[in-house]
User: Fold this.
Amino acid sequence: MRTEISSIGKQAVLQRLFENSGFTNGQPVRLKQKGECCTAQKLMLEGCDFDLVYTPLKHLGYKAVLNVLGELYATLHQPASLSVVLGLSKRFCFEDVADLWEGMLAACREHGVSQLSLDLNPSVNGLAIALAACGVQKKGVIDKVPRTKNMDLICLSGHVGAAYMGLHVLEREKVAFTSSGEQPDLSKYKAVLGSYLSPEIKPGIIDRFVEADVLPSNGYFLTRGLGEAILRLSRDTGLGAKIYLEKIPISSQTFAMAEEIDMDAVTAAMNGGDDYKFIFTVPLGKHDVIRKDFQDFEVIGHMARPDVGAVLVTPEGAELPIHAQGF
Amino acid sequence: MRTEISSIGKQAVLQRLFENSGFTNGQPVRLKQKGECCTAQKLMLEGCDFDLVYTPLKHLGYKAVLNVLGELYATLHQPASLSVVLGLSKRFCFEDVADLWEGMLAACREHGVSQLSLDLNPSVNGLAIALAACGVQKKGVIDKVPRTKNMDLICLSGHVGAAYMGLHVLEREKVAFTSSGEQPDLSKYKAVLGSYLSPEIKPGIIDRFVEADVLPSNGYFLTRGLGEAILRLSRDTGLGAKIYLEKIPISSQTFAMAEEIDMDAVTAAMNGGDDYKFIFTVPLGKHDVIRKDFQDFEVIGHMARPDVGAVLVTPEGAELPIHAQGF
Assistant:
C-alpha cells in the first residue's frame, strides 16, 4: 500500500497522523507547565545520521525523539513539549510517515510530552528530521544544583559501545547483502543491534535524583561517544577529568563483537556514539548514595585539576589524552 | 580563500564563529527570561527552500532567523533564545559558514535574542538549516488576549506578492544565465528582489500592540502565502473569513512585474509565499485605533460565520473559495 502525500495533501496527512493520538497539532507551541524552561534541538539527516536500508522507520521515529529528549534529561528537565519538522523527498509516502510517527508518538507518551507539533516540508534528497524539545523543572530544584568541583565523581548510566557494534554489524551485512542478495542471519547479534536500533531511556531518572537528594552538577547525553562527552564536560567546567579504563562498563556481547572484528572494545566505547546513556557529575560526598541507590550507574572517574586535562587512565596508571573524533 | 571544516575541526569552527559575537554557545539553552514561554521551529533545505546560485549566504542566514522569529512575533512573544543546527555537505567551507553566521548574528542582535546556540552536523546533500526559537511574554499580556469572534478585523502588516515576483525573476535569470553565460542586469527589479532576498521585520511590533492596548486574538506569519494563512486562521478559529480582493496591498513593482510575466498579481499575492508579513485579527471595536496608530497595517477583511468558509470577495461581490497550494 502506497499513498502519495501529494494525492491527499499535507493538511489531510497531518490530520490523519494526529487522529486518535491524544495530541493536538499546534505550532508555535505554548508551554503550559510552570518552572524553569530549557530547550534542546537535533537535526538528523538521512545518509549521515541514519540509513533506511536497515533502520525501520518506526524505530527511527522512537529513537529520534529520545535523541532530543535525552538532552533535556541531562540537564534535569522533564520533557514538556516537542516540535518536529520532517523534510520528505518524493520517495516517502503517507504510510512511511505514519510508521515514523507511530514511533515518535510512542516515545512522547512514555516520556510525558504533553504538547506536540508536526510540520512537513518538501526535500530534494531523502529524509530530514528536525526536532526541538522544551523541558521544565522547578526553580527550587535548579537553584539547588551544585557547581562541578575538582574530585566530583563522574557517573555513567549504563554500558557503552554496544550501539557502535550494532551499527558495524548492520553496515557489514548491508555490504554482504548488496553483493550476494542473501538475507543475513542477525540472530546472534540481537543485543548490539537492539542497542543501536532501539535504545531506551528510563523516564524516572530525574525523579530518582530529586528523591535521593542527589542533584548532578553537570550532565551529558551520549550520542557522539563517551570521549566527546568527557571533552565537553572538561571544557564546560574548566576542569580536568580522569576516566579509568577498567571502570568503563562494556557488555559481554560488545567484547565478543570487538574480538570478531578485531577492534579494541574500549575504542568503540570511547568513540562509538549512539549510546543514549548519560554521564553525570556528583559531589564526592554522594559516593555512598550513588553506590546504594543508583546501582545502574557506574562511577567511571572523577574531575581533576585543570592542568590534568581530559584523560583516560590505563590499569597501569598511564594517562592518555582523550581526543575529539568525527565532524 | 577556502578553509575546509575538517582541517580545523568542528570545535574550532564553533569557537571562531562565537568569538567577539557577544554570545556564548550553549546547548541545551536554559531560558533566563520570565513569563509565558512559546517555541517555534523551522527547517530550511537547499533545493526546496533556497537556491544558493542566487542567494548570498549572509542574506540567507539573516532571513532564516527571521523565518523562525516571525512565528514568535505572530503570537505576541518577544524572541529570547535561538538554537541553530546546520547540516553541511563537503561543498561548504569555513568561510561559507562564517558568511551565513554573520547574517544570523545580525538578525539575532536586531531582534533581542539573548541566548544562542549553534551545532554543526555533516550532510550528504547540500545545506540544511534547522532553527528553534523560544519567545516570552508577560502572563498578564497573554491572559488579556481576546478570543477571535465573528466580524473581527483581519489586518495585514504590509504588501504581499513582491517576494514571489523576486523569486520568479531570480529563477528566470538563472535559466537565462545557464544557457547564455551572460550576467543579467537586475537593477530594474531591485524592489522585488529585496523583498525576496532580504525581508525585514520591525522588532517593535509587539510593544506597539501592548502600548496601544490592541492585543490581536490570532496572528500568522506569512511564509507560504496569504491564502494559506487565511485557511489556517479559519481552521484554528472554526470561523469563516472574508478577504476583499481590492483591499490586498500589492506594490506597484509587483503589478508591473505581474504584467511583464503575464500573471495575475492577486494570484501571486495569495499563493506566493516568502512575504514575511503578518496577519492579525483584532476586535471590530479597535477599528479606529488600527486606522490611526497602525497605518502600516491594512484591514483586508473580517471574520465571518463558519458556513461562509475562507473566501476572497471580488469587487463585484463574488465569493471565491480560498484553496491550499503547494506541499
About this structure: Chain A has twelve helices and twelve strands.
